[in-house]
Amino acid sequence: MVACRAIGILGRFSALRILRSRGYICRNFTESSALLTRTHINYGVKGDVAVIRINSPNSKVNTLNKELHSEFIEVMNEIWASDQIRSAVLISSKPGCFIAGADINMLAACKTPQEVTQISQEAQRTFEKLEKSTKPVVAAISGSCLGGGLELAVSCQYRIATKDRKTVLGTPEVLLGILPGAGGTQRLPKMVGVPAAFDMMLTGRNIRADRAKKMGLVDQLVEPLGPGLKPPEERTIEYLEEVAITFAKGLADKKISPKRDKGLVEKLTAYAMTIPFVRQQVYKKVEEKVRKQTKGLYPAPLKIIDVVKTGIEQGSDAGYLSESQKFGELAMTKESKALMGLYHGQVLCKKNKFGAPQKDVKHLAILGAGLMGAGIAQVSVDKGLKTMLKDATLTGLGRGQQQVFKGLNDKVKKKALTSFERDSIFSNLTGQLDYQGFEKADMVIEAVFEDLSLKHRVLKEVEAVIPDHCVFASNTSALPISEIAAVSKRPEKVIGMHYFSPVDKMQLLEIITTEKTSKDASASAVAVGLKQGKVIIVVKDGPGFYTTRCLAPMMSEVIRILQEGVDPKKLDSLTTSFGFPVGAATLVDEVGVDVAKHVAEDLGKAFGERFGGGNPELLTQMVSKGFLGRKSGKGFYIYQEGVKNKNLNSDMDSILASLKIPPKSEVSSDEDIQFRLVTRFVNEAVMCLQEGILATPAEGDIGAVFGLGFPPCLGGPFRFVDLYGAQKLVDRLKKYEAAYGKQFTPCQLLADHANSPNKKFYQ
Amino acid sequence: MTAILTYAFKNLPTTSKWALRFSIRPLSCSSQLRAAAAVQTKTKKTLTKPNIRNIVVVDGVRTPFLLSGTSYKDLMPHDLARAALTGLLHRTSVPKEVVDYIIFGTVIQEVKTSNVAREAALGAGFSDKTPAHTVTMACISANQAMTTGVGLIASGQCDVVVAGGVELMSDIPIRHSRKMRKLMLDLNKAKSVGQRLSLISKFRLNFLAPELPAVAEFSTSETMGHSADRLAAAFAVSRLEQDEYALRSHSLAKKAQDEGLLSDVVPFKVPGKDTVTKDNGIRPSSLEQMAKLKPAFIKPYGTVTAANSSFLTDGASAMLIMAEEKALAMGYKPKAYLRDFMYVSQDPKDQLLLGPTYATPKVLEKAGLTLNDIDAFEFHEAFSGQILANFKAMDSDWFAQNYMGRKTKGHAMIVEAYPK
């Protein structure tokens, strides 16, 4: 547990955020029968307003694909041709989703950049026609309006959005390694101003409806309705449509102007952007920032800047052309394939493959109010789980309660919650020092100190007070669950739930099942994890499970590299420039040197020579000198409050000197150092799949990226093998094996992939 | 929010047609109910609860209700409450020493007179030995005062209670900011000049920003008007329906006023101003005029406007309630019997204003009555869109099944209770 605490620190630095999927409710609309021939889009006419309804069949979301696109063109042509129709409303029939974006599979199916460019150009043409429509079109947005969906909406003459939490607007293309390819790069800067447009397109962040209104991205808001004579979601959509129709009429009658009053700041910004010098400065600044953050590993952000610049400086024709070409180029990059793979993996890891549990967990008990325990409590109470947080001491409990409160209160400060909601959520938490109320618990998650005898004691105490159906989950990062379950009266109810710290930031949850764990207990654990908003991988029990086990050999290599005389700063920059969010030496400091030592010893015993390499004596000496990393103020670096640039801890020199080993020049180039780290990680991950610890490569990739900070641009260890080539990787491993021995011996599965080039983890 | 508070008593002492009164959430059944009930083979005995005393309304009065910021604007709440109390004394000639207890309801409390019932009673010349307290429960505060009185009598604590309500929206307590208050309180405690100076040095100009009492619900940060507009939209109540209903309410009120039916109103001589004799907010307009108004809350496309909402009101009321035997012994002829009441509460966000829908069937069932037993309902609500939404909700099986936990709608035909 403690190990993952620190591993979680990665999350703070990680820039990667991926679309979160949601549940949607399907509704049916009745349409005039003559129009039912189309499957994605239909329209009806109310007075002189055409109401165009998007409803992709057999899907929870609407995505912009070829069929939808061509049907949209058909519908618009009919509307433009009709004398009866004077304006139109564009609305989705699916509550919770306007259009979630372009169909990723459509892009993935393309073989050449030209094909992708062509798709982009077709969309550009359609949207341009829409933008120039003499009959006003109002986009009525409820639910996610992302990517291509937003590009469609901004091509309309007017936008009305529902002001609820499900309604978000954004251009998440950059997170998939591509750019908004349907005119978004050209329209957004004009609509919201260049700086705001850059912010949207370069971060891919979701913008809530009220914020979108302030930015000028939408023109009107509609409040969500409560229950009336129909379910709230259904009536809200109807209401949105009614309001949109009145605005469509108003626009057609010229009673309403589509132009928006800009605020003073906005006007000033717009004026400043007319000065070429200012514009150049803005491009420069943004580019600098992007280069610094991406370290040149992600091509999409730079291309986005380039395309926006082309549009502004050379006119929109050049802009559109550049947009579609760059879009085609980006869609073919390895980075984009890796990021899209992660997106698919994430969707997969948001499902409960065990089905629904027999009994929903309503009452959750957490043992230990430390960082992890309180973190788990925080992500539980805000989802409505009644949570009992138990600790052994009042001070420990108080600290934990404060952590939960602070987490919620920070959201109030950011206006994501109201103070009333905070209080009401916080009342789901009870802090206690005894086992009172545990007879109601449906699940107990223990997050006590990583000590087997302590965990045994706690398990026995808890089993005396919990009901028969209650699941006992252990939050541990390395102790095998079967060993913990050994003292249980009901081992079928014992499972591992390995959270990553900080729990409220890190999306990953690693669930560990033993041979005895029942399917229902697994279903329960996954259901709770999903409720807590986690991305879940389910792995088999074993020392270090999957995540900790992959990290350990890499850490061992870190020690060896340091022993070979590489400066920690240099090592950090080598790892971050490879795409890791945190440098390797810093990572040890953040994890805690004592924890790293603990894990290294445990796993070293379990796996023997393969986990060797660096001398664990280095960690032992650091611990004995009190250099425990950030928490003690000193590790490889010196940490001081308020000092931003951390300095190397000069006291480490003597330790490093005493353990110094000569570097082997044939495997010590910068690139070799990077690959020594990564290949050990990847080799171990593949071995986990080979041994059945992992069920699928996708889970391995998600676990590595979301839990350990494996470079997202590489898509995870398995995607990396596919894209980089198993043969090349095995060659590297063999080269290092020749220098260092067994630790680099490629595992059988990897060797198999190298021997038959058609073998891929992802077909 | 508070405008409608005191309306609960508005029609109290009127003729038998108005006998059964429904207010926002609680309601009370009057004696005339017995006549109607008799037809349905109901007798007085069935409404009498075993082992509970009969409780009667002897009489009730109110000051004229005025738009805030008009003739009452320089008064304080207890002035209005005092006027209602003296009016009641005059109307009923009840000996002051007979009154066991006085209760008032109010929404926004004037901090100087937080127990406004007591201040008003002392000023009106009630005995200083008569205890008084003040209750608050948003719009329903005055009814809470009344039913608190019912409880005191029913439990045998008291025989005679005066219950009332008061609101003065012309003046509301605007406070110093928390920072300024803290500074002032700390200054009070500071002992030396040095301490005072160091405290004063912490003063910042923004400390002077005032703190207004919230017009929004604390839990949802939504104002009542906004909630009413959303409610009307949820039940698809059109702007025209709302305007028509508001016009009807104003026209009927005007008719009642012109025909002298509002006998509960007592004239009030405002110090330094003329005597106020009637409500000044009854203003029937025309549908054309009303259609011109812009929405007041959800702009620019909402449906709730100033014309189809109640106005912000200043006013006070008071009512004399007694145990039946006491009233009869004193020679009073009761105007009404207080038989039953029901408070309900729902989701403060989406169902804030749906009280009547939930309370009406419940209180009828509790009292063993059906809709046929009732000649007239009276609901007191602030927005015509709101009451129309309630009618639609009461008339919907779907709503009853999905939100009220009932098999069918509470009572059919509520909608017919008002002429379309």
Find the biggest chain interface.
A-B, 17 and 25 residues
Please report which band the strand proportion of chain B falls in: under 5%, 5-15%, 15-25%, 25-35%, 35-45% or over 45%. 5-15%
CATH class category of the domain at 49-169 and 312-338 in chain B: Alpha Beta
Low-confidence stretches of chain A: 1-35
What's the total number of strands of chain A?
20
- Under CATH, the topology of the largest domain in chain A can be stated as 2-enoyl-CoA Hydratase, Chain A, domain 1
What strand order characterises the main sheet of chain A? 13-12-11-14-15-16-17-18
The CATH superfamily name of the domain at 49-169 and 312-338 in chain B is Thiolase/Chalcone synthase
Helix proportion of residues of chain A, in percent? 40-55%
If you compute it from the alpha carbons, what radius of gyration of chain A comes out, rounded to the nearest whole angstrom?
28 Å
Total domains of chain A, how many? 3
In CATH, the topology of the domain at 49-169 and 312-338 in chain B is named Peroxisomal Thiolase, Chain A, domain 1
By secondary-structure content and strand pairing, the structural class of chain A works out as alpha/beta
Net shape of chain A: globular
Q: Provide the CATH architecture of the largest domain in chain A.
A: Alpha-Beta Complex
Oligomeric category:
heterodimer
**N- to C-terminal distance of chain B:** 27 Å
Shape of chain B: globular
Tell me the series of helices and strands of chain B, N- to C-terminal.
EEHHEEHEHEHEHHHHEEHEHEHHH
